[in-house]
Amino acid sequence: MTIPHVPVLAGEAIELLDPQPGQTVVDCTFGAGGHARLLAGRIGASGTLIAIDRDPVAAERFAELEAELTCTARFIRASFVVGLARLREEGAHADIVLMDLGMSSMQIDTWQRGFSYSYDAPLDMRMDPDLAQSAHALVNEAEPRHLETIFRDLGEERYARQIARAIVRERRHAPINSTIALVDVITRAVPAPARFFQALRIAVNDELGQLDAALPLAWDVLRVGGRLAAISFHSLEDRRVKRFLAARAQGCICPPDLPVCACGREPEAELVSRRAIAPTPGELAANPRARSARLRVASKLREDQG
């Protein structure tokens, strides 16, 4: 049974972003539209919602939501890197930019797409079906060292080498075509396949590369006084968001032994919350998928000083 979509950390995001009537909001990862619906309700008829997503199913969900909205609404079917770059080229500016990272519940529950190890499905894992490489190609064609690197660096898995070798041994006999077949290979050596699936999904969709490219683009699109929020679901994402925001919140970078500041650098950002926001026990009880979510928000104080 498909689990109804529940936007993660929705109340906290709305509180910290504080959307106002007439503002422009960019939702970089529209998904099933849970956060977008709430934000659109706050900006009202005079506001503008711009939704970005590379998943064609998200475009269908947007069309359904658009009929209910009073605000001006636009959908860009693209990765958030391409979508944000397009907005920057157009000279667009936003008061709020939201990035809800990772995969959506909509993608998990569409079993045919192979994101979840809980269903027997073809190995795919592409958020955009137009991407050239699927998880099937990666599992069955990648060199053993490449697989090991993916599992170690993107899954933070200590058994990366053993599983990479097990996959190579298995595919010598026959291709690994399904999620269940891959689970079988993994669980012969370790009890839990979750991190290996995470690593393959991140690699297939270049999620970390996309995030590294998208954060500065999102900051460029954000107008002074606007707020950027990112919801991450694993430490690899959260560390990148934390470093990006912390760098922009840093002021003077002179050596500590200088008596007065010589660099003249002033912070570009103010962290709205000093620490990442985690789901409450109540939210976790209602939506267990939220357990690893972390929200970070920053306000833009000034443009890049170069």
Task: Give structural notes.
By secondary structure, the chain is α/β, with parallel strands linked by helices. The chain folds into two domains: 10-106 and 207-300, Vaccinia Virus protein VP39 (Rossmann fold), CATH 3.40.50; 112-205, DNA polymerase, domain 1. The protein has 13 helices and seven strands. The protein has a seven-stranded mixed sheet with strand order 3-2-1-4-5-7-6, sandwiched between helices. Helix 3 (56-66) links the parallel strand 2 (48-53) and strand 3. The N and C termini lie far apart (52 Å).
Which descriptors would you attach to this protein?
alpha/beta, Rossmann fold, DNA polymerase, domain 1, 7-stranded mixed beta sheet, 13 helices, 7 strands
